[in-house]
């Protein structure tokens, strides 16, 4: 099953490589990984999406917790949560394609953020599924370049991941 | 406040931490530190002949004393030479701090002379590693390193120290922190009472219980509690290779150790049990054999300080995360206060069954009139030293024979690389023990393959007067490899012979020690006695043993716990 694990990490050099090293060392999957500082400058927030049986996921969370620099973590997929990913896509856009792309972008609530005579650059945020859906809808033949940030997530409601 | 250079702060921090002995080898990036070491006499340094040996020495010291070991080496090759030793300590959860020099900060990343990313290289085999970024951080970094290494589930911690952190003429205010606080590191201090209660209820209701104890009992200094609980309940107990000595092996409740080369009765008892109380053990693959066939009728209570060890390979029915000593103490008082008592009839029937398994004598060997059997050498050593020696070992058949036939009644006496299986561990580990236990008998039971992996340390033994006794069970082969080739590769002995062995007698004499060679059975006892009588000499006893011997029992690969070979022809 796919899981989103959100981690508060000491904002120290080397902490990230410990997390990444753990995944490869123990043969766990990383599908996406994002990391950035938080409002508290001593902490980074890291979100990793992974897949595995319940037993594997339990080991992943336990092993992550053992890392000295991991302060706290939560498996967001255990409760209701919001997940978002940002994508920038460069599309071939000439002639009638231009209107067609514009319509599709509107349907997906994206934005065209850069325009040349032959290329549109589209920005789209949403769940990973939605981003996949957009790429499918515009057709891969017109896609020149795709860049995605990986998933960030947060729990719904009052629950917070903080110290 | 006192002003000290980084190097002086480092040594002073070791003093304030109570560290008396360090093991190491100097080099460019560590020279400021070595100079600071020279200008004091509280911290004693042992100069080894290879950095790997320094780590094994510190490891042997840690295993015998229960205190963290300390290593000091230079950057680059000095640091990378420690890796096998660090991995050895990591796999067996041994507390240790390894201080590594590093090139100056300004050179890091430039492929400078003797630069290695030791933080990166060591990462998978340490509990944690730290690098020093400001000289003022040295005291706190050292305090943190020892704190992390020796609390919770212990393990090695590497500290990387760039040369400019220890510059002699730059001085800073020194004070050693009493405590460190790490918001993200809080090992459990006691187990969950509800879980402990549940475990005790299950324990008292069991009909076919068994206690399965691991190295965690020794590391967690809980052998007394374990012994008391086991005796109070009257239940059978077995332990892992790492747990040897956690319960007196001469006691009638003790079944010997379990797993791949464990006793028939221990493996049978585990397999047929209805309740396993696992204490400080981790259901390693050398214990469980095929996990899907593991002890089909057993419910499992698992006590461990490391939550990640619980339900990793075998699911626990009642997990208890906490220090083994405090959890066992709580269990003891619950058992003492409980109205229910263990079911006496069921227990009597269970013991009757176990005694039948015992009577089957799973651990036996054929004696011979002319060749010396390795098992009889170990039995004799056990008798001649009253089972009280510290015994270190290397890896191979000799290690298994030592563990099977030496009768350990005390913890911290059996010292071997159980997790990583590091050949070359035995001699330096024995040196680490002897160095701090000069009046105790220290034996290194080894093989002619393993001993050659750190034989240069005979020189260190001379320099520091470390009269260990090296018992070389010489089968002229990489015996354990050969045994597997006999069993699984139709005796094709690919690269398992040790051809052109050195003349060990000349070799040890060259290093300034005494050599004794034993070839005939009738010489065994008198010559072993002669060796043991030379209290203040390192004696290398080279014993020509049966070249064709195998270690039994041996679990059948991919079978259950109870599937074993008992000899070359007998399979149960
Ligand atoms: C450093 C290292 N290399 C290889 C091995 C694999 N190995 C395990 S036992 C063994 C043979 C050991 O030979 P010896 O020390 O003579 O012991 P014996 O089995 O003959 O008693 C080998 C090569 C190991 N455990 N460690
Ligand atoms: Mg051999």
From TrEMBL, chain A:
Alphabetical GO biological process terms: isoleucine biosynthetic process; L-valine biosynthetic process
Gene3D superfamilies reported for this sequence: 3.30.70.260, ACT-like. Chain A, domain 2
Domain ACT: 4-78
Stored InterPro entries: Acetalactate_synth_ssu, Acetolactate_synth/TF_NikR_C, Acetolactate_synth_ssu_C, ACT-like_dom_sf, ACT_dom, AHAS_ACT, AHAS_small-like_ACT
Entry-linked PROSITE patterns: ACT
One GO term describing the cellular component: cytosol
Pathway info: Amino-acid biosynthesis; L-isoleucine biosynthesis; L-isoleucine from 2-oxobutanoate: step 1/4; Amino-acid biosynthesis; L-valine biosynthesis; L-valine from pyruvate: step 1/4
UniProt-listed Enzyme Commission number(s): 2.2.1.6
UniProt keyword annotations, A-Z: Amino-acid biosynthesis, Branched-chain amino acid biosynthesis, Transferase
A GO MF term: acetolactate synthase activity
Reactions accelerated catalytically: 2 pyruvate + H(+) = (2S)-2-acetolactate + CO2
Pfam families the UniProt entry points to: ACT_AHAS_ss, ALS_ss_C
Similarity comment text for this entry: Belongs to the acetolactate synthase small subunit family.
Its job: Catalyzes the conversion of 2 pyruvate molecules into acetolactate in the first common step of the biosynthetic pathway of the branched-amino acids such as leucine, isoleucine, and valine.
Subunit structure: Dimer of large and small chains.
Protein name: Acetolactate synthase small subunit
Organism per entry: Marinobacter persicus
TrEMBL record, chain B:
Limits of the Thiamine pyrophosphate enzyme TPP-binding domain: 394-543
SUPFAM superfamilies per record: DHS-like NAD/FAD-binding domain (SSF52467), Thiamin diphosphate-binding fold (THDP-binding) (SSF52518)
EC number(s) recorded for this UniProt protein: 2.2.1.6
Pathway: Amino-acid biosynthesis; L-isoleucine biosynthesis; L-isoleucine from 2-oxobutanoate: step 1/4; Amino-acid biosynthesis; L-valine biosynthesis; L-valine from pyruvate: step 1/4
GO biological process: one example: L-valine biosynthetic process
Signal peptide coordinates: none
Reactions the enzyme catalyzes: 2 pyruvate + H(+) = (2S)-2-acetolactate + CO2
Cofactor: thiamine diphosphate; Mg(2+)
Residue ranges of domain Thiamine pyrophosphate enzyme N-terminal TPP-binding in the record: 5-117
Thiamine pyrophosphate enzyme central domain boundaries: 196-330
GO cellular component terms given for this protein: acetolactate synthase complex
Bound cofactor: record note: Binds 1 thiamine pyrophosphate per subunit.
Keywords of this entry: Amino-acid biosynthesis, Branched-chain amino acid biosynthesis, FAD, Flavoprotein, Magnesium, Metal-binding, Thiamine pyrophosphate, Transferase
Gene Ontology terms for molecular function: acetolactate synthase activity; flavin adenine dinucleotide binding; magnesium ion binding; thiamine pyrophosphate binding
Stated family: Belongs to the TPP enzyme family.
PANTHER family recorded: ACETOLACTATE SYNTHASE CATALYTIC SUBUNIT, MITOCHONDRIAL (PTHR18968:SF13), THIAMINE PYROPHOSPHATE ENZYMES (PTHR18968)
Name assigned to this protein: Acetolactate synthase
Organism (species): Marinobacter persicus
Taxonomy of the source species: Bacteria, Pseudomonadati, Pseudomonadota, Gammaproteobacteria, Pseudomonadales
